Amino acid sequence: MLFPLPRMDAMSDLDELTRQAVRRLEQRRHGVVVAALAGDATEIRSSGGLTADSRLEIGSVSKVFTSLILARMAERGEVGLDQPLGDFLPAPAGITLRHLATHTSGLPRLPKGMVIRAIIRRETTDPYAHCTADFLIENLSRIRPATPGKKFRYSNLGAGLLGLALSRHAGLGYADLVAREITTPLGLSSTGTGGQVEQGHKADGKPAGPWNLADLAGAGGLRSTATDLVRFVRAHYEESVITSAVALELATEFRRNPFQTVRLGWMAHRLHPRQGGHLQILHNGQTGGYYSFVAFDQEKQVGVVMLTDTSRVGDQVGLDLLSALQSRA
């Protein structure tokens, strides 16, 4: 059920929508930051000691950065969407970069044996800390993927391998590749893989350690702020240096069912006609102590950014806010 919100017909209403979203989140979370975008207007509200410039882990939202890098490199002809992963590193036959970006590679969600490793090594702060390039390549040699291109199967392993493949092709580390392709052109000065972040918390409120993800960083190793993510989202519906790459990103899709598709990196679903029939393009992220959500509607030119310093928050508040913005745009 959509959260009932007043009709937005002025900046003050945008402010109220954002405040209500924060109030829904702050009841059980340490710190939250929520941003609502409508055209060229932005409202950012926060609580629990966080601000628009608080730096947090964004987890799997990193995947849309990685896929945007793929789109930028593909439009320049440096790589091809249908180029085999095996052109970049030892890999099973048939898997392409497009498959990795749309979660249709047939690869499992995690590297082989990782679930058991996580259970045994509960003291490990970052469950992906061992995922070096050598480990991933050796691990990949022991995996028999399902037939690529046939079925959606969300894969952190696949997204991480995409980041690794693009980095190797560019001759850069993943952090430097993100800087070259996205953060420097868009002026996202606080987004990257290193540096300090606010203290994160587990779902039970206890402090959580940082995650870095080693060479699987393309799947979830970035850190950012609401300020930077607002610029990133806005660049997906306004003219910018990434406009042509965004067009490629969103035009490439794999249909999961009549209402849901996967674009390059992004998840997309269309609301039921009774809910307005709007298209929502989104991604969330979660690490040991943080939760993130970004979403937008390119046609309506609205968007949402939601960051918390607590894990396991869920998307509902962000989805409701986006729906409210869409219905009032």
UniProtKB/TrEMBL annotation:
- Coiled-coil annotation reads none
| SUPFAM superfamilies according to UniProt | beta-lactamase/transpeptidase-like (SSF56601)
Q: Which residues form the Beta-lactamase-related domain?
A: 20-312
Superkingdom? Bacteria
Q: Where would one find the signal peptide in this protein?
A: none
Q: What is this protein called?
A: CubicO group peptidase (Beta-lactamase class C family)
Query: Whose protein is this, by species?
Result: Actinoplanes italicus
